[in-house]
TrEMBL record, chain A:
Biological processes annotated in GO: amino acid transport
Family, per entry: Belongs to the binding-protein-dependent transport system permease family. LivHM subfamily.
Molecular function, one GO term: transmembrane transporter activity
Transmembrane region(s): 12-31, 163-181, 218-238, 250-269, 295-312, 344-362, 374-403, 415-436
GO cellular component: plasma membrane
Organism for this UniProt entry: freshwater metagenome
Full protein name: Unannotated protein
From TrEMBL, chain B:
Organism of provenance: freshwater metagenome
Location within or outside the cell: Cell membrane
Assigned keywords, A-Z: Cell membrane, Membrane, Transmembrane, Transmembrane helix
Pfam families noted in UniProt: BPD_transp_2 (PF02653)
Main location: membrane
Protein name: Unannotated protein
Chain segments annotated as transmembrane: 12-35, 65-88, 94-110, 154-177, 207-227, 239-272, 301-317
InterPro entries cross-referenced by the UniProt entry: ABC_transp_permease, LivM-like
């Protein structure tokens, strides 16, 4: 708690110093700067949002992306709004050098970050100090040391986040696991199918201005077609040529490398935000804060997962898929069209991955590598559940998501995926066939 | 278009430090992948073992730079045990999953704020190589060589040391694979059960191969670190492993010359295409009938896209690469 006052006080002194310097500069060079300002007539307020963590009493700052910033005049007229990018900066154009109020929407802060000083959610820019063309204000997030939430509340909040992540991972990994089961191909490009869905949703949402609710089903359909295309264009042909599954694995690495750079080429390296449902206020359900958007995606996700499980269990097609996944020769001998089943698996896998991508894009942000960042968690999930098993992917993925988020309570959140590796290794030592895999020789 | 400059750059790249560290890493990966048939996709993590071994000894332990080598080997053994113990008894793709994952986690660990004191965070470790520099027989700032092969003394020193290491490890790999040990390892690639039925401990042989290939990969990381004069966590991303794999497949699996020539050829093609694309986009984006095809800041992505396409085409149409023997290219031995 005491530590917090250090940077706080320092911040004030810094401001005073800055004010002195600025006013001196203003006094000295006012004429010249006003002339230049009159020339180009462009003024900006740059809001910077930084997360501050004390490491051995030295503040470590990392930019915070996705925070909403609002600039208003002192009488409340809205001048401009923006969302911070990956560099934690948000640039808002203002008409003149005037007094402005800059607000940060604390509910828009990602990962449950809070401002160090809740009173500093609004910063005033004084006309006198606004001397150059850009004026920079900084918001600091981080541990305030006087956090009101109790232990149990933090646990519940993390559990909620974990369930949301788990739903997404479970959804994305069903296709991955079923493709391994039905074709024997370990497809490392599956993460790119998730990215595909998210980027397509972004394209429809931001460039064509179609809300997610309308474009979503279309994106999911296209995601399924993308899966079909990958199967038709690459993996079905390789299997026909008699190229073995390990070679196909290396091909999938090449595909992943190609697609991720294609996305980088088309989309650029920055993280961007979907515009639909981007600004929402937390609903407080008991001790847990969740936005209506996240609540909706979570409920939708659970419905999707349950219906996937139900159709695998009950429908003819689901039974056929499970049969092929279990034993291709035997299934083919009983008259199941295995090629058709494989095509359906690729379609369903692609569609589910795209859905996961949209949800993830709404949840966090959209970037060219968002899927490949998840792919390792998916593999941990399906190994836990049993490679090739659909239920295994659902249960394993769900568990991994919760586990990863909960582990952030005990270890730094930048390393929160490390325990997933621990689970992966532990499962392979103790029960390599996974929870749902049949006990058979896998080596 | 400055064709001569492009050709100069291309030739320089094919014998430069990048080709050297790729060649060493590919030699190590060849032992895993080409000879033993283990799908190790975490070679970048083994490289990181070497770089951080060097950097940490010089920076934090206050002993000579060369103690970095035993420390690096220690890291390699730990890493091999972590990825090997759970997976080497299982189907090949389990090792692939675990190595990719481990390499990514290793990178997250070394760049984390939490372990900044130990690994230097995102900035990595720098200024550790003075002991190595002092051994250089050349004037560091002076230019040596002729024509396109003009290098500063320091670069020339690293390049000579690097090619020396490539030579040593090529000879070592070649002899190793002619030895009884090498024959067993190749037998494991062809048919694990047959080797097991001859009474060989397949698990132990695989683990040994993992460590030996890892140690060679470690030296690749050391050369990279010494050349750059710093250890950067982002030099060891999983993508690096994929590029090395592409170079290896390009040259030919299970051939010593394949790893070396493949790496040279990889950089030759890569730098050529990079330079050509940059030249085309230098005066604004390239447009064909009014449609913008590519801008200068997209050149990198396009180039790496080519690498991915190249890897796919190679595996499908010419899995033996340049030098390989199709019979020996037994990724799917069983």
């Amino acid at each position: 708690m005491l530590k917090q006052t250090g940077p706080g006080v320092g911040h004030i002194w810094l401001k005073v110093l800055l004010a002195v310097i600025c006013s001196t500069v203003a006094g000295l060079g006012f004429a010249s700067s006003s002339v230049s300002a009159a020339d180009d007539g462009e003024f900006f307020i740059i809001a910077s949002v930084q997360n501050q963590v004390l490491v051995n009493d030295v503040p470590e700052r990392t930019p915070v992306a996705g925070a909403s910033i609002k600039v208003t005049t002192s009488d409340g007229t809205l001048i401009g709004e923006g969302i911070t990018g990956a560099d934690g900066l948000c640039k808002v154009a203002v008409p003149t050098r005037d007094n402005y109020l800059i607000d940060i929407d604390t509910t828009s802060l990602p990962n449950g970050l809070t401002l160090i000083d809740a009173a500093k959610a609004q910063v005033k820019v004084d006309q006198v100090l606004f001397t150059t063309n850009t004026k920079r204000v900084t918001f600091f997030t981080g541990d305030s040391g006087v956090s009101g939430s109790t232990e149990i509340e933090r646990y519940l909040q993390r559990l909620t986040d974990g369930i949301r992540l788990g739903i997404i991972i479970a959804m994305c990994s069903v296709g991955l696991s079923l493709v391994i089961g039905t074709t024997g191909v370990t497809n490392f490009a599956h993460g790119e199918m998730v990215t595909f869905g998210a980027l397509l949703a972004f394209f429809f949402n931001v460039h064509l201005n179609i809300p997610i609710l309308i474009s979503g089903p279309l994106v999911i359909l296209l995601g399924g077609c993308f899966g079909l295309l990958i199967n038709w264009g690459i993996f079905a042909r390789l299997t026909k040529r008699g190229i073995g599954s390990n070679s196909q694995l290396v091909v999938s690495l090449g595909l992943s490398l190609m697609l991720i750079n294609l996305f980088l080429f088309l989309f650029g390296g920055r993280t961007k935000q979907l515009t639909s449902f981007s600004k929402q206020v937390n609903l407080e359900i008991g001790p847990i804060g969740i936005t209506p958007r996240d609540l909706t995606t979570a409920i939708l996700g659970i419905i999707i997962l349950l219906s996937v499980a139900f159709s695998l269990q009950r429908s003819r097609l689901g039974k056929a898929i499970r049969a092929v996944s279990d034993n291709v020769q035997l299934a083919s001998a009983t008259g199941i069209d295995t090629q058709k089943v494989i095509r359906i698996v690729w379609f369903a896998g692609g569609a589910l991955a795209a859905t996961g991508g949209i949800f993830r894009g709404l949840d966090e942000q959209v970037s060219f590598s968002m899927g490949s960042d998840l792919v390792f968690l998916m593999f941990a999930g399906i190994t836990l559940g049993g490679l090739g098993s659909a239920y295994g992917a659902l249960v394993g993925g769900f568990f991994i998501g919760i586990f990863v988020e909960m582990s952030a309570l005990f270890i730094p959140s930048e390393l929160k995926v490390a325990p997933a590796l621990f689970i992966l290794i532990l499962v392979l030592i103790v029960r390599p066939q996974g929870i749902f895999g049949r006990s058979q020789r896998v080596g | 278009m400055d064709l001569i400059k492009i050709i100069e750059n291309t030739i320089r790249a094919s014998i430069g430090v990048d080709a050297i560290y790729f060649a060493i890493a590919a030699l190590g990966l060849n032992i895993h992948f080409g000879y033993t048939g283990m799908l190790n996709f975490g070679q970048a993590a083994f490289m990181a073992c070497g770089s951080y071994g060097l950097g940490m000894t010089a920076q934090y332990f206050g002993v000579g730079l060369w103690w970095g080598i035993p420390l690096g080997i220690f890291f390699v053994i730990i890493l091999s045990l972590i990825v090997g113990i759970p997976t080497l008894r299982l189907r090949a793709d389990y090792l692939a999953i675990v190595t990719i994952a481990t390499a990514e986690i290793v990178r997250l660990f070394v760049r984390s704020v939490k372990f900044r004191k130990v690994f230097g965070g995102t900035e990595g470790i720098s200024s550790f190589s003075s002991q190595y520099r002092d051994l250089s027989p050349f004037e560091p700032g002076k230019e040596y060589g002729f024509g396109p092969f003009t290098y500063t003394g320091y670069s020339l020193y690293t390049i000579l040391i690097g090619w020396g290491l490539v030579g040593i490890f090529s000879l070592f790999t070649w002899q190793l694979m002619r030895s009884p040990w090498g024959r067993v390892v190749k037998g494991i690639r062809e048919d694990e059960d047959a080797v097991r039925s001859l009474g060989k401990n397949v698990y132990a042989y695989k683990m040994q191969a993992l460590v030996i290939g890892g140690v060679i990969g470690m030296f690749a990381g050391m050369i990279l670190a010494l050349d750059r004069g710093s250890v950067q966590p982002d030099n060891y991303s999983r993508m690096v492993t994929f590029y090395i794999l592409t170079a290896l497949v390009l040259g030919g699996l299970a051939k010593v010359a394949g790893s070396v020539v493949g790496s040279m050829l990889f950089w030759l093609l890569f730098v050529f295409s990079d330079n050509v694309l940059r030249e085309m986009t230098r005066n604004g984006p390239l447009r064909i009938s009014g449609v913008t095809i590519i801008e200068s800041n997209q050149v990198g992505a396009v180039n790496y896209m080519f690498v991915g396409i190249g890897l796919m085409l190679l595996i499908v149409f010419r899995p033996q690469g340049l030098f390989g023997n199709r019979q020996e290219m037994a990724l799917d031995g069983r």
